[in-house]
Write a structure and sequence with these properties.
This protein has 13 helices and eight strands. The chain has 286 residues and is of the alpha/beta class. Strands 1, 2, 3, 4, 5, 6, 7 and 8 form an eight-stranded mixed sheet that branches.
Length: 286
């Protein structure tokens, strides 16, 4: 088990262990929510639904399209997108447990024909060139040590003109205190993430992979309440998680989460990316 971000089975094992406790605290999903004031802490699932829809709506999907969900977690967002947009999605994750859960969810919702899930590393995509019309990656590219490498693989499997929408944590300005630096280091370590980048650095990674940035929107203000609410939910039902994580992971994931969410130097970016239309022609003329 390497434990290195974005590689090997370290992260798959991590999500095997924490999936259920996290999903229970996060409204069934494994991502934050989109909140407006006043925040209703009992509406965590609706907030996470809103974030899923915010991402999927930016993909401008048409029924029948083939979509890749990169880091699909337990498949809840994947299934919601299939049902709302009439598309076929392939969800990939490093966690075998999540694949089993996702397949069971698809069957339970009568969506088995619209959804495929597999253990598949986003850093070593085995799909044919140009095999997807669109892709999304909600809080998964953050696990890549090198964002450019992740984007380059996605660029290959997207058809020319296809959109990719990613959500990721970004640095809006330098971290202001030792406490904030320690909390961010704790997030990177305990969630096995790559470094947090500025908008400029992030866009440079996208472009280095041959993709265009269509839009970069920070919705941190709307996502930040998630950490307070989820931290509270996890603390209420902490024993479930405690059985599957180390003391350090528990401290970070439960006790420090609200403080992490209060770091206003951090943003939550929704990045819309396009594979240039002329990519096929350019590749052909090489
Ligand atoms: C925070 S969860 C997000 C899950 C889902 N997108 C959601 O929004 O509910 C991160 C997911 O990314 C997946 N992931 C991380 N690194 C990966 C990689 N290299 N290849 C495939 N999946 C990866 C994890 O297995 C996990 O399912």
């Amino acid at each position: 088990m390497s434990g290195a971000p974005g590689t090997g089975d370290g992260l798959g094992t991590f999500y095997d262990r924490v999936n259920d406790a996290l999903a229970e605290a996060m409204g069934g999903y494994l991502h934050g929510g989109y909140w407006d004031e006043p925040v209703d802490p009992d509406a965590v699932e609706q907030a996470a639904d809103r974030l899923t829809d915010f991402v999927a709506d930016r993909l401008r999907l048409a029924p029948g399209q083939r979509v890749l969900d990169v880091g699909s977690g337990n498949g809840k967002a994947t299934a919601r997108i299939a049902a709302r947009h009439g598309v076929h999605l392939t969800g990939i994750t490093l966690s075998p447990y999540q694949v089993r859960q996702s397949a069971a969810l698809a069957a339970a919702l009568g969506l088995a024909d619209a959804l495929d899930f597999e253990v598949h590393d986003m850093m070593a995509l085995g799909f044919p060139d140009a095999s997807f019309d669109a892709a999304l990656a909600i809080e998964s590219i953050c696990h890549a040590e090198t964002r450019t490498e992740a984007f380059a693989g996605l660029a290959r499997v997207l058809r020319p003109g296809a959109l990719l929408v990613v959500t990721d944590f970004v640095l809006l300005r330098p971290l202001e205190s030792e406490e904030h630096r320690a909390l961010v280091a704790g997030a990177i370590k305990n969630y096995q993430q790559g470094p947090m980048l500025t908008q400029e650095e992030y866009e440079a990674c996208v472009r280095a992979a041959g993709l265009e940035v269509v839009d970069f929107t920070d919705i941190g203000e709307h996502v930040r309440p998630s950490y307070r609410v989820v931290g509270h939910n996890l603390a209420r039902n902490g024993e479930k998680l405690r059985a599957h994580v180390s003391e350090e992971e528990f401290r970070y994931m439960v006790e420090d989460l609200a403080r992490f969410g209060a770091i206003t130097e951090l943003g939550y970016a929704v990045v819309t990316v396009r594979k240039p239309d002329d990519a096929a022609a350019r590749e052909g003329s090489r």
